[in-house]
Amino acid sequence: MPNQVSSTSQKTLVFLDASLSDISTLMAGFDPNAEVILLDPTLNGIRQITQALAGRSNIDSLQIYSHGDAGSLLLGNTLLNETTLDQYRTSLEGWRQALSTNSDILLYGCHTGAGEIGLSFLRKLSQFTGADVAASSDLTGFGGNWQLEVQVGAIETQSVLNATVAQTYQGTLNVITVTSTADSGAGSLRDALDRATAGSTIVIASTLANRTIRLTSGQLVITKNLTIDATAAPGLTLSGNNTSRIMRVERNISVALKNLTFVDGNAVSGTTPGWGGAINVGNFAQLNLFGCTFRNNKGDIGGAVQVGYGTQTTVENCTFDGNDGSRINNGFSAGAIATVGGGGAGGPGFLIVRNSRFTNNKGFNGGAIYNLLQPVTVENCTFLNNTATGNGGGAIFSDGANPIGPQATVGGTFAIRNSWFEGNQARGEGGALFLWSYKDRIILENSTVIRNSVTLSDKNLARGGGLTTNGELTLRNVTFANNVAQTQGGGLWLFGNSPMNITNSTFSGNRVTNDAGGAMFINTAGGTPVNIINTTIVHNSAGRANGALWMNNNNKDSVLLRNSIVAFNTATDRNQNQVGFPPRDGGGNIEFPGPVGVGQRVAATSQVVDPMLGPLTNVGGTLIHPLLAGSPAINTGVSQGAPTTDQRNFRRDTRIDIGAVEFGGFSMTGGSGNDVLLGNSSANTLTGGGGDDVLIGIDNGDTLTGGTGADRFVYTTRTQGNAVARFSPTMLDRITDFRVSEGDRIQLDTDKNLLTSERPSRLFHAGTIAGSTLEAAIQAAFLDKNQTISGAQALAANEAVFFRWGSRSFIAVNDATATFGSNDLILEVTGIQMPSADSSAGTLSVANYFV
What we know:
There is one protein chain. By secondary structure, the protein is mainly beta. Among the domains are: about 10-170, Rossmann fold (3-Layer(aba) Sandwich), CATH 3.40.50; about 485-495 and about 505-665, no CATH class; about 670-850, no CATH class. The chain contains 8 helices and 73 strands. The strands form 8 sheets. It has a 28-stranded parallel β-sheet that branches. Strands 13-16-19-22-26-30-34-38-42-45-49-53 form a 12-stranded parallel β-sheet. Strands 25, 29, 33, 37, 40, 41, 44, 48, 52 and 56 form a 10-stranded parallel β-sheet that branches. Strand 10 (about 175-180), helix 7 and strand 11 form a beta-alpha-beta unit. It is globular.
């Protein structure tokens, strides 16, 4: 048993591995005169200690509390043993500068000094550091003791851990190393789980990197609190061999799994419920996943992971791909993760998912995640191409965020931040997100929801291409773009009687194919406040009515529109292009164009004027429509209720701009990063730098220089100032450094949306063209597009042709009419560097020149 050191004259430094169980108890038990430093379990522990010792001197006692095994110590994510000691010799010898002449190093970890291998390890460590070293030869912690039975040199210092705290500590400092990929037997993971005591860490030996443990005798069962860490063996895979689940964690157990890959788990239905294809967790447990990958697992509930009632689940830096929880059409099943409840009134359950990626998963409700009655936090995550085959939530389906449900008087919180949802599909409701609330708060901020879709379910519903919710909604700094709903709400479908606030957000190119509400279908109860503030709603469409906003006669006066742009939205019913019923006018709005026929104004006091927006553009990870110079939205908003920052989190000045973004923040000259360079209506010179730049010239004859990198030259209209009527070489846009091999490409944008591809159908090389004027040369290229075929080969509609005229080079893009006309685009690309084979070819690859 350690004794409290009686003298504080000694200078002691403690390193404590943060992965140890019940670490708060240990922290509270150290002598207050000793300095304690936590080792991050995700980083190299030797480097952390070396950095902490830099600049220090005269340390008498260095005490390390971490998991150990015979002749080894786990420091952070690094296993230090007799072999790796040589690898870190320089660092360890550097510790001498910080240690006093008679310093001691005390190693508190199970079995570290055991046997000849342990003694050899201590001798070598003492040799490198110049310190006397002591370690335990048996179990350290609960069920063992805190004595350091093996010593090299004269140990003169004592532990700074209080004896009472040590006696009551319930964890152990044990590490077990897996050295075999066999299903069972000595050195196997199954054997390690059998031998482990509560609080142990099981590490995978580095020799097993990129190898597979294939289970042949059924799932692994975890019955003790422990950690399994494969950091030292990257690529280590656990396979269920498509015949069994991979792992079961029993009730009330806490487990941490690090850097493991789970593949081909199959929770077979039968006498044991087929829950969790890779991992099934019992009730009131704790599951912590760090850096794990789940691929091609299958289960009846939870294709990859199913966690029990009241379980606390944390997922960080993980990847879920191709998992399937849809096979029996269970309403509680998602493709990747499924939960079954927070644990009743006061229940402890929660789900936290950070820095993780979900792709190509398939579930019944929730293509990636199904959540039931517990709070959820999703941060910095990506959801791509997941599918829900049942009733909603192409990426996430949540049925309540509090542990009680419909009877709750106080709701929980479902929060999504800094995340990206793209290409997810659902039947029913919520192409990306279906978030049902029982008085719960729904927070979606700093995120992107694009290209998701919802189609008819067996209940004949297809609403909310991006999001469906009835919760107390805070939607801030979010873009909904190019989402599609078959019936209602291309971007959003909102209902219920909880207040909703939409701020600094962009709705662009969302679509309803059959009915109404291209951007939003607002079906909230009358009197329920819905506030739409500084939001841009443009280029959305509806198959029947209300390309922008659908409201009903009961709730229209509760929907407030302020400082927002509603423009270029369309519907089949031209009288309801943008709205049917107008929302309450909060001032500072722009609508364009004005209503036709018997159509309603969007807002009585709005400016009816073209807002002058740039195309939907990705700026630093945020998709926005920037305001162009001279936009009537600049400085014409109202200050009441306006946010202090815009969608990019740029600070707004006291003269508020209308819409989601303030004017500015764009340059015409790039740096070394990936820049977006935006021109205006003048003839601009845009110059990129060393990154993959996007150059948007807007109008008139611009000069575009991409620099190095894969640059994109964007043309936001195919009209070149009426190419014939106002034709002049000075009106042409000019690209000065088009390099095909670097990935330079041209993007045509006719719908103000850079997410869509509008490249020509075919591209030809007409060779060198004669003509007394450039216009005559263009006409000739249109009449004979292919230099390798004799006779006239006329350019067809939506085709493009490259040609040379004198010393200059050009690309002409035809519109939907075959002959050359005022809507055709002419670009000068003199100096273009194309593949050598293209110089003599008649037909060029469109993908090599356009996106």
